[in-house]
Design brief:
about 250 residues; alpha/beta; Rossmann fold; 10 helices; 7 strands; about 15% strand
Length: about 250
């Protein structure tokens, strides 16, 4: 294993709190998973709650656009403690890529309140004690995220933060072109807002990663993606990363 591979492998494990322990099995016994998830990520110093397979998918997408010289920046919408965007910046740093920006878009106040009439499933989940008391509404402040970037030596001018609700920040964000967009806004409206504002800026050959496309018990994320794809006649194949996460490469 090369020095670059060793560094990125170590970084993945550090960000996901898997240096000394295994990650929770999202496809295992669900009666045990929630407790394991909270213990491993929320109550621990994990900087990303992404399973390692999703971090690997992100790396593959970034390396592909770098190798094929697909123009554009990298963005994640919904960054939590910043782990995935830190990993994005690390890849650019290690390969001495200086002409791309990593955009970290988040309210830095947790998830928005879903409309209970339009999205009753999301609303019930959002108001559930599980979300408020254990998941803590997935809140991480901008100051915390910046501290995490700085801790890994990656807080610099190639990282830009977009603070606020996506409907307010993304339409006016000074983003010219994207090569990889990773959407992790969880809910319908956050997903639709990101797709509506950003997809037209995605280069042909670039990637869209949807973190919660495979979920339907608590989110309408899939509905938002399917409606957007249908409306814009997007037929690119959706590829499964794991039971929750899917992605596609833009071809037209």
């Amino acid at each position: 294993m090369s020095a670059v591979e060793l560094y990125l492998d170590l970084l993945k494990k550090s960000l996901t709190n898997t240096l000394y322990q295994n990650e929770p099995d999202a496809d295992g016994d669900q009666s045990l998973y929630v407790g394991e998830f909270v213990h491993h990520y929320i109550d621990a110093p994990a900087v990303s709650m992404l399973p390692l397979v999703r971090i690997a998918n992100l790396q593959e997408c970034i390396m592909d656009v770098l190798n094929r010289q697909i123009p554009g920046d990298l963005i994640e919408t919904g960054v939590w403690r910043g782990g995935a965007t830190i990993f994005m910046r690390a890849i650019l740093k290690i390969y001495e890529v200086t002409d791309r920006i990593v955009w970290a878009a988040d309210s830095f106040e947790g998830l928005p309140e879903p409309d209970p009439e339009k999205f009753p499933v999301e609303s019930r989940f959002h108001r559930d004690p599980l979300m408020k008391e254990f998941y803590r509404n997935f809140t991480a402040s901008l100051e915390e995220v910046k501290r995490n970037f700085a801790a890994y030596g990656l807080l610099d001018g190639q990282v830009k933060f977009l603070q606020g609700w996506f409907k307010d920040t993304l339409p006016h964000a000074p983003i010219t072109r994207l090569a990889v967009m990773r959407l992790d806004g969880d809910y319908y409206e956050s997903t639709m807002d990101a797709l509506t504002s950003l997809y037209e800026k995605l280069s042909i050959g670039g990637y869209v990663i949807i973190d919660d496309y495979g979920q339907d018990a608590w989110t309408n994320c899939r509905q938002a993606v399917d409606e957007f794809r249908s409306r814009h006649d997007i037929t690119d194949e959706k590829v499964r990363v794991d039971s929750s996460c899917y992605f596609w490469r833009r071809t037209k």
